[in-house]
């Protein structure tokens, strides 16, 4: 049958000449007979092992290496590199100085990296490691992590002190153990190991570590990206890999790897209601707080709706699930996708059946997060302020959100005889609308079968994780997802369209990120090292003439 042969046609591996050969039999799973479904979601081929003479990546999971990695990760966690919302300039705010301590720890832990790679400090605390490849014509690949961590909160609430790493035989506990010193130490350890084996890449490898990702990356990743664009130019990288994604999702005998290929945008809209004050003994029908409350109620009556567009990464994930896990999906979903139901109809149906995580992959979220007004119980407030946070879906924009808010609040302003002003900064006015901290949704990175970078990236995920004990006998399907939050990659959009955000961790291995008792399973840490190890080697197979 043509459909079955096409499935097996996806089970190739790369050879060193970018040819293909079969590797292993497909793990059986019922497939839809529909011809259109059979063309959805081709499996990324598993790369054949490079003929570089290096040790197998499975050797990186031994007990001696595990103990070494526990010690390395613990040493990094012990340095309290917290970033704060009110952090100042690196030259004046002394709280940044702790990053000098971390840099010294890294220098001692990874002597080969610091002896053999070109090391640059960018804006004092950003670190850029460049491992020059032997073939300078090949576009570099870049791996990212960040050095900073979110504040720990009260230490007494932790089982173990947040900056005194503890290993319990399975997990390393401490602030930053999962986010993101796990990735930082894993990348540097991988480079150290490859240097120990005297390996030299053909393709230049860059490691870029910002230091303020948790507060937006304006001092760290932004400066690093600008520096790289200045020396390398736009669209100069073959791939950028960073933290993120949704890990793995098991459905029957299939496992979906979910690197994020896009991020939602965001904007804060601030509404400032200004009215006449006075004594509370002679109030008007509606005070400033009353009018502001009416605005909030009306906004919450008009949420954005979920919309499944063709360009949303969720579309490809659903197609993959329909093809490879037809018994696990909604009965109506195959027909809905194949017949191209109305975007809003299918969006609403999916939101009902799959809950808020899927809803907000398709829908711009709206949340009133700050509301204040009034100073004294017998004084009419002359102003009230509302802040509404929006996380913008790929099909929306900052301007569309602003116009939508105006449409909702204009009738209220007219009812209360208020004029509306739109300004970027505070000003006089009866109802002032301003925006701040805005970011458009990210570009969507390619996952088409024709994109050689994605194919190699997805195939490498398969090669590593189909070998992991808990996934043995299952097939990994690499498929893009969308992140509701943002990473340092927002500063790298000019450098490549191939941006993949993937913290390679199975369910239950990264616990309590951003909260009390954060910890990482060392199995996940070592599996991440395996992925970095294979990616660095496999990209030496890929020739730039095959990039798309």
TrEMBL record:
GO CC terms of this entry: extracellular region; fungal-type vacuole lumen
PANTHER family given in the database record: N-FATTY-ACYL-AMINO ACID SYNTHASE/HYDROLASE PM20D1, N-FATTY-ACYL-AMINO ACID SYNTHASE_HYDROLASE PM20D1
Descriptive protein name: Vacuolar carboxypeptidase Cps1
Signal peptide per UniProt: 1-17
Protein source organism: Rhizodiscina lignyota
Record keywords, A-Z: Carboxypeptidase, Hydrolase, Metal-binding, Protease, Signal, Zinc
Domain of life according to the entry: Eukaryota
GO molecular function, one term: metallocarboxypeptidase activity
Gene Ontology BP terms: adaptive thermogenesis; amide biosynthetic process; amide catabolic process; amino acid metabolic process; lipid metabolic process; proteolysis involved in protein catabolic process
Binding site for Zn(2+) 1: 179, 214, 514
């Amino acid at each position: 049958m043509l459909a079955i042969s096409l499935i097996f046609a996806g089970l190739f591996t790369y050879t060193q000449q970018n040819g293909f050969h079969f590797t292993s039999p497909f793990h059986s799973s019922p497939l839809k007979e529909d011809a259109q479904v059979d063309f959805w979601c081709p499996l990324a081929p598993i790369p054949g092992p490079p003929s570089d003479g290096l040790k197998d990546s499975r050797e990186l999971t031994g007990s001696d290496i595990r103990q070494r990695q526990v010690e390395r990760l613990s040493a990094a966690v012990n340095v309290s590199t917290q970033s704060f919302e009110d952090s100042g300039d690196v030259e004046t705010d002394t709280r940044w100085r702790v990053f000098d301590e971390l840099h010294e720890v890294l220098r001692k832990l990874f002597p080969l990296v610091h002896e053999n790679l070109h090391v640059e400090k960018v804006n004092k605390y950003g670190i850029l490691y460049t491992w020059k490849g032997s073939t300078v014509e090949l576009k570099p690949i870049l791996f990212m992590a960040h050095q900073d961590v979110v504040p720990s909160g009260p230490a007494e609430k932790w089982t173990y002190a947040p900056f005194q790493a503890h290993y319990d035989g399975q997990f390393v506990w401490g602030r930053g153990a999962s986010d993101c010193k796990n990735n930082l130490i894993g990348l540097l350890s991988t480079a150290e190991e490859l240097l120990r084996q005297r390996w030299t890449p053909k393709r230049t490898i860059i490691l870029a570590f910002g230091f303020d990702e948790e507060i937006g990356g304006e001092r760290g990743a932004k400066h690093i990206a600008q520096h790289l664009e200045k020396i390398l130019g736009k669209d100069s990288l073959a791939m950028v890999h960073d933290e993120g994604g949704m890990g793995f999702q098991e459905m029957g005998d299939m496992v979906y790897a979910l690197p994020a290929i896009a991020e939602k945008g965001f904007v804060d809209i601030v509404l400032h209601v200004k009215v006449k004050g006075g004594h509370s003994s002679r109030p008007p029908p509606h005070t400033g707080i009353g009018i502001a409350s009416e605005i909030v109620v009306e906004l919450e009556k008009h949420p954005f709706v979920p919309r499944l567009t063709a360009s949303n990464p969720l579309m490809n994930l659903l197609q993959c699930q329909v093809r490879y896990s037809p018994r696990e999906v909604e009965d109506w979903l195959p027909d809905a996708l194949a017949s191209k139901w109305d975007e809003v109809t299918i969006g609403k149906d999916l939101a009902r059946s799959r809950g808020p995580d899927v809803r907000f992959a398709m829908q711009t979220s709206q949340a009133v997060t700050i509301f204040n007004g009034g100073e004294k119980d017998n004084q009419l407030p002359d102003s009230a302020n509302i802040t509404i946070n929006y996380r913008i879906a790929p099909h929306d924009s900052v301007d569309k959100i602003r116009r939508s808010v105006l449409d909702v609040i204009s009738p209220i302003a007219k009812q209360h005889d208020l004029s509306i002003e739109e300004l970027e900064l505070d000003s006089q006015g009866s109802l002032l609308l301003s925006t701040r901290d805005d970011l458009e949704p990210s570009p969507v990175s390619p996952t088409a079968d024709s994109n050689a970078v994605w194919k190699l990236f997805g195939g490498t995920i398969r090669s590593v994780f189909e070998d992991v004990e808990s996934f043995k006998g299952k097939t990994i399907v690499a498929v893009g997802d969308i992140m509701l939050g943002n990473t340092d990659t927002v500063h790298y959009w000019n450098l490549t369209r191939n941006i993949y955000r993937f913290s390679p961790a199975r369910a239950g291995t990264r616990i309590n990120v951003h909260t009390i008792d954060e910890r990482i399973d060392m199995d996940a840490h070592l599996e991440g090292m395996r992925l970095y190890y294979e990616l660095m080697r496999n990209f030496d197979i890929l020739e730039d003439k095959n990039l798309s």
